[in-house]
Amino acid sequence: MTDEPQGTPEVPEGQDPLSALDFEPSAETAELEKAKAEAAEHLDQLQRERASFTNYRNRALRDQEAARTRGLEDVLTALLPVLDDIERAKVHAELSGPMAAIAEKLDASLGRFGIERYGVVGEEFDPTIHDALMHRTTADAASTTVELVIEPGYRIGERIVRAARVGVVGPE
User: Fold this and answer.
1) Is the Cα dihedral 137, 139, 140, 143 positive or negative?
2) Going by fewer Cβ within 10 Å, which terminus of the chain is more open, N or C?
3) DSSP code of 1?
4) What CA–CA distance (Å, rounded) separates 136 from 169?
5) Is the model's pLDDT at 85 over the cut of 60?
6) DSSP-assigned letters across all residues of 132-144
């Protein structure tokens, strides 16, 4: 007598033992496979929807920041004549008392929004941020530098709103 149960066919060496079984997959197995495929499809749709939402959110944040910057630029552009008048008054020592305090507060307020005034006498001339309205040469100049600031420049972060309008002096 053999130890093998009755009704189990002999399986040749190297062959899959399940291949010799003689049965059809049950309806439960087919339903399970269908449910797995459906779950995989839903997971794929969910991942695509999540990626789409993330892209939308990032684009909305970029658009919001760009609109904020454009708004700041518009306000700064509208205020440029006033800021120029205040700067000229400071240079000619005509700004005193309460008006000097107001000018300081205005500068501080612009600074809170990342608006920076630039262009000072003695700095190196850079044609990407300065407009040279006058130029003269001298023997004792080592490099081209700002000699006169006609109108200061303004920038928001790295973006130039208005280039500084300057007079420069350079070597012969």
Assistant:
1) positive
2) N
3) -
4) 5
5) yes
6) EEEEEEETT-SS-
pLDDT of residue 126: 92
User: Do 146 and 120 touch, CB atoms closer than 8 A?
Assistant: yes
Q: Is the pTM of this model over 0.70?
A: no
d(CA 21, CA 97): 103
pLDDT at 22 over 70: no
Q: How far apart are CA 61 and CA 37, in angstroms?
A: 36
- Please give the residue that has the higher pLDDT: either 13 or 142: 142
Cβ-contact 144, 121 below 8 angstroms: no
Distance, in Å, from the CA atom of 85 to the CA atom of 102, rounded to the nearest integer, reads: 13
Q: Please identify which residue in the block is written with the tokens 């205020």.
A: 79
Q: Is the pLDDT of residue 134 over 90?
A: yes
Bridge partners, 137 (sequence order):
170
Dist CA 23 CA 151 (whole Å): 92
